[in-house]
Amino acid sequence: xxxxxxxxxxxxxxxxxxxxxxxxxxxxxxxxxxxxxxxxxxxxxxxxxxxxxxxxxxxxxxxxxxxxxxxxxxxxxxxxxxxxxxxxxxxxxxxxxxxxxxxxxxxxxxxxxxxxxxxxxxxxxxxxxxxxxxxxxxxxxxxxxxxxxxxxxxxxxxxxxxxxxxxxxxxxxxxxxxxxxxxxxxxxxxxxxxxxxxxxxxxxxxxxxxxxxxxxxxxxxxxxxxxxxxxxxxxxxxxxxxxxxxxxxxxxxxxxxxxxxxxxxxxxxxxxxxxxxxxxxxxxxxxxxxxxxxxxxxxxxxxxxxxxxxxxxxxxxxxxxxxxxxxxxxxxxxxxxxxxxxxxxxxxxxxxxxxxxxxxxxxxxxxxxxxxxxxxxxxxxxxxxxxxxxxxxx
Length: 394
Fold this sequence. Notes:
Layout: E1 2-6, H1 33-39, E2 47-52, H2 58-63, E3 66-67, E4 70-76, H3 83-89, E5 98-102, H4 109-116, E6 122-127, E7 135-140, E8 143-149, E9 158-166, H5 176-181, H6 186-196, E10 199-203, H7 215-224, E11 230-231, E12 234-235, E13 240-242, E14 245-247, E15 252-253, E16 258-260, E17 263-265, E18 270-271, E19 276-277, E20 281-283, E21 288-291, E22 294-296, E23 299-300, E24 305-308, E25 311-313, E26 316-317, E27 322-323, E28 328-329, E29 340-343, E30 346-349, E31 358-359, E32 364-365, E33 370-371, E34 376-377, E35 388-389
């Protein structure tokens, strides 16, 4: 059995984090979506095929040619013109039945096995509270009867999870608009299959889509809950560790620090003294969280420093960043409304009452910087001492 993983997307809605890495390799907890999904593949999967952009050298380098005994091949999608095009690029490498999943969402081993237990063709569907944001699926008996992308008035609360079980019949269904408009989505092919021969479904439970930067916080919390409590580093006298906290080797937690799990702290970090790390926080390798700092529900990238008297809440910080003393991230509006954030030039509702900042790699903030809720800073940028970030810094 083969698995085809789609990992060639541009990840534009996750910018600025995806300015410096492909979306499937964005960090959440102590892993990435791609590596988490690879770890969930059952033993029946013997070969992995990953669709990547021609310019993407990082995924082949990170994953290699073998992953836990499974052979890995790479297929290039020259133009990012849709999921069907990505799947069709791999046609010559696929033998018969094969699993397809999105490399930038999260799927569990249990749900993958559910879809593999179905007849082909089949798709994974999930009940959600906001179906209008997804491809809405109507079912009858054991089969799908319709698939409609983002309808204004959904007729179902079941949505498409992007997890599929196909055989080579899928290549008989290429939508007309592939030729007419240069767009080729697999949902068009599936809709054609539904009408011609039928598509089965399985209800999945653990699928977690990562469409926007704030979804990374959901994924981070989801994965942190799965980690065991383990202290491999050194915790000094006077430090307090509560709940599920995983601390890697080489890390020192200095006295006066207070850590409430679930929290992950990577290798060779210096934590404290006298800092407060609150639940749903992951801190990557070689970081420094210093005196008087508070970190809450956030992702801190590798080699990044939050060294003095700063607050970071509900935020994503990239690699090699340094927040100057007294940097404050505001994560709550005065009117208590949901935080808004600009994505691809459009001001969107994050759906979150609390959301801080997204900071790309290699950013430095001057002392006393204040960042408004939902604002973003692009890689390599900086702020002046005392600067108030009211707009994205691009």
